[in-house]
Specification:
five-stranded mixed beta sheet; 7 helices; about 20% strand; globular
Length: about 150
């Protein structure tokens, strides 16, 4: 239910996503409880951007787990083992993509996580122009992520 013309994530959201919505959040890409270079959380229209970013990061050899988290309240009400299965594991960087304010995302990314968000109210313009202006294109997000990862040896 959005005004944006978002890509259809296909079977991914029809299978894994259905249960996840009812539980407030679930893994859309990657495996439960395993380690990855990046844990990326997103909700709503940002999920398709997270998946685009993931495809490009994986082409460069990074491993990524993508979590769709449409409702923090539902997710936080799940038992500890479920929450750990979704967010658990070792990650070099935890990222949240939020086209709103960052408030609240630190609970999931940790103090050292990267939150790509808005710092102001917004603007009115065509959607592609706004994505570029506020840094929500895949290329700009990838640049921010790579700037926070340790330099390769």
């Amino acid at each position: 239910l959005t005004r944006q013309g978002l890509p259809d994530l296909g079977e991914l959201t029809r299978t894994r996503g259905l249960e996840g919505v009812a539980r407030g959040g679930d893994i859309l890409h990657g495996d439960q409880g395993t380690s990855a270079d990046i844990l990326m959380c997103a909700t709503g229209s940002e999920v398709s951007t997270a998946m685009e970013v993931t495809r490009k990061l994986e082409l460069s050899g990074l491993s990524v787990r993508v979590v769709s988290m449409p409702c923090w309240e539902f997710f936080d009400s799940q038992d500890e083992s479920y929450r750990r299965s979704v967010l658990g594991g070792d990650f070099t960087l935890c990222v949240a993509i939020e086209a709103g304010i960052e408030m609240g995302w630190h609970k999931y990314t940790g103090r050292d996580g990267l939150i790509i968000s808005m710092s102001g109210y917004g603007a009115s313009a065509p959607e592609p122009d706004l994505r570029e202006e506020f840094g929500f294109t895949a290329e700009r997000i990838i640049k921010k992520i790579k700037s926070r990862l340790p330099a390769p040896i």
